[in-house]
Write a structure and sequence with these properties.
This protein is of the alpha+beta class. Among the domains are: about 230-315, Orthogonal Bundle (Helix Hairpins), CATH 1.10.287; about 320-465, Heat Shock Protein 90. The protein is built from 13 helices and nine strands. The chain has helices at about 1-10, 20-55, 65-90, 100-120, 130-145, 150-175, 185-275, 280-315, 325-335, 335-340, 360-375, 410, 430-440; strands at about 320-325, 345-350, 355-360, 380-390, 395-400, 420, 425-430, 445-450, 455-465. The strands form three sheets. The protein has a five-stranded mixed sheet with strand order 2-4-5-9-8, with helices on one face. Strand 6 and strand 7 form a beta hairpin. Helix 2 (about 20-55) packs antiparallel against helix 3, helix 2 (about 20-55) packs parallel to helix 4 and helix 7 (about 185-275) crosses helix 13. The longest helix has about 90 residues, at about 185-275. It is rod-shaped.
Length: about 475
């Protein structure tokens, strides 16, 4: 029994609004519904007045009687319009935003009460068919445009019906209304509307709640996907930092070693020159000149490495900046120099390009990922060709390898992030390529991969200038 009562309570008053986000959405929709209901009340009053006026004109009543009925109905319609207009004006106040459902329900009840009272005093001897029409339209509009909970809809419908019953009984008891004109079956219709509106509000409110939960689920998935993408980019950046450290070590060791050797030799030559015989002086001068050239060459190489390092430091800037894409491709290739050494033949066909406005850090991540994949796809010794060219308003970068290639089935899902089991452990798959495609898309470009099993893979990246 207690379980049944709890189920009924949850049905009539669901607790979905315990979620603050859903509650705020309900308040927003309720405030909008308050305005729609106000407009509906005014519109139905005008429509009913016009319809009844046309009906009265077709009746056999005298002209004086028709004019009187038109005047009475005009007053009745005007009273309903006043309620709707007052509701519309009130909806612009701050107070209406606090409990919009309450104010909308109050407006619906007041318009119905005004209609019933005006019918008793102004048109007690004519049909009351306008009352059930008004109750039906206003109640159904309130249920559909307002996020009414089932209990709220039940209260509103019951209050309208009770007021209608009291007015009908009072009018019949006092002889104010004509029972031949006022139809008691309209009370039955209004009573049925209570349960119809309650059930309808339960369906609509439940649908709104389900849609909100679905939306929140989609938001969480998008957030998780964004977080996974960020982790993938962070992982790629960490790998790039490691490659950069290895490349710098390789690039700095050679000129530093040559510089140290040249300086040490120059010191020895200078010492010997002080005590050398005249015939040996010329040979020592020539040797010093060669050593100075070696020092200058080593310093030039160090300046090149430092300039490359500076470009990598500048990649930390998140804003767009114009860059030389060929220079960026060269810097990315340098990162893999210590790893590939002589086992991979790296070919370049970089044609002159206009400067590209982009986020260099992101594009470095993209081409690092693509070049890493190309190297990993090679069987032993292999060849990788990197080319760039301007095609109309686009820059195209092509990375080709003669590696293992891919199956058509793998190629179809190459950009889809997912998970796979490797060695009994769960690991991520394709996240780097997924992130790379997202970055290229964000730059307004496109990326395409074609591959033939056993022959190799071609990656085309197109970026707008």
């Amino acid at each position: 029994m207690a379980m049944d009562l709890s189920r009924v309570r949850n049905y009539l008053r669901p607790d979905a609004e315990a979620d603050e986000g859903f509650r705020q959405e309900i308040l927003r929709l309720s405030h909008l519904g308050l305005r729609i209901l106000a407009g509906t009340e005014m519109a139905i009053a005008v429509f009913a007045f016009v319809a009844q006026m046309l009906t009265d004109l077709a009746s056999p009543a005298t002209a004086a009687s028709r004019h009187k009925m038109v005047a009475e109905r005009a007053i009745q319609a005007w009273l309903i319009i006043v309620v709707g207009l007052a509701t519309l004006l009130f909806s612009r106040t701050l107070l209406s935003r606090r409990r919009p459902r309450f104010w909308a329900s109050l407006s619906a009840f007041l318009s119905t009460a005004v209609l019933i009272c005006s019918s008793l005093w102004l048109t007690p001897r004519v049909t009351d068919e306008y009352i059930p029409v008004h109750v039906t339209v206003v109640l159904l509009v309130a249920v559909t445009v307002l996020p009414l909970r089932p209990l709220d809809a039940f209260r509103l419908g019951a209050s309208m019906w009770l007021f209608y019953v009291v007015a009908f009984v009072a009018g019949a008891y006092t002889g104010l209304i004509d029972l031949d004109a006022w139809d008691a079956s309209h009370l039955v219709l209004a009573f049925m509307l209570i349960f119809l509106s309650t059930g309808l509000s339960a369906v609509i409110y439940g649908e709104r709640s389900a849609n909100y939960r679905t939306h929140r689920g989609h938001v969480r998935v998008a957030q998780d996907l964004s977080a996974a993408q960020s982790r993938a980019l962070l992982s790629e950046s960490a790998v790039s930092v490691g490659r950069l450290a290895a490349a710098l070590t390789h690039e700095l060791n050679t000129p530093l070693g040559a510089l140290k050797s040249s300086v040490d030799t120059m010191l020895v030559v200078a010492a010997k020159q002080a005590t050398a015989q005249p015939e040996a002086q010329q040979r020592l001068v020539t040797m010093q000149a060669e050593l100075r050239k070696s020092v200058t060459s080593s310093i030039d190489r160090l300046q090149v490495v430092i300039a490359r390092l500076q470009r990598f430091i500048d990649l930390d800037h998140s804003e767009r900046q114009p860059i030389d894409l060929n220079e960026l491709l060269g810097d990315v290739a340098i990162l893999f120099a210590p790893a590939i050494k002589d086992r991979v033949k790296l070919e370049f066909d970089l044609r002159p390009l206009p400067r590209l406005s982009c986020r260099p850090q992101q594009l470095t991540t993209v081409f690092t990922c693509l070049l890493s994949n190309a190297i990993n796809a090679l069987n032993g010794d292999g060849r990788i060709r990197i080319s760039s060219e301007k095609i109309e308003s686009m820059i195209q970068v092509k990375i080709e390898d003669n590696g293992r290639g891919m199956e058509p089935a793998d190629l179809e899902t190459i950009f889809e992030p997912g998970f796979k089991v490797s060695g009994g452990r769960m690991s991520t798959g394709n996240w780097s390529l997924f992130s790379s495609r997202q970055i290229v898309f964000e730059h307004g470009g496109d990326i395409e991969i074609t591959s033939t099993l056993g022959q190799g893979t071609i990656v085309n990246v197109r970026l707008p200038i």
